[in-house]
Write the structure tokens for this entry.
Amino acid sequence: MKRSREPIIWVLFGGGGMASALFLPVLILVLFIALPLGWVQSAPIDDLQWLVRHPLTRLGLIVFVMLCLFHWAHRFRYTLYDGLQLSHLNEVIAVLTYGMAMVGTVVGAYLIWGVG
């Protein structure tokens, strides 16, 4: 009996949906609205550099990026599969979408770990 990879994909989809729903609005609000408008005061640059250079912070950012990308890949795959009725290209679409998520994760990890 062949084992399916579908539960792993669904876990990544659910985790990415939860992470992006919980953290992206907060990040957008703080970084792109509250800071430029002066609603909150920015931390000293030394504290921010220490936080961003800490290995656990970098690992957390990499996991966050990975989950968001796999959530996108799963949603986009089923949009093409069900929405555009491209069921005959299911394997090609799966390889391309999840492949792009993996490549994006590797590039994001390289960029995040390469800073500082």
Q: What stands out?
A: The chain has one domain: 6-114. The two ends are 48 Å apart (CA to CA). The CA atoms of residues 33 and 71 lie 25 Å apart.
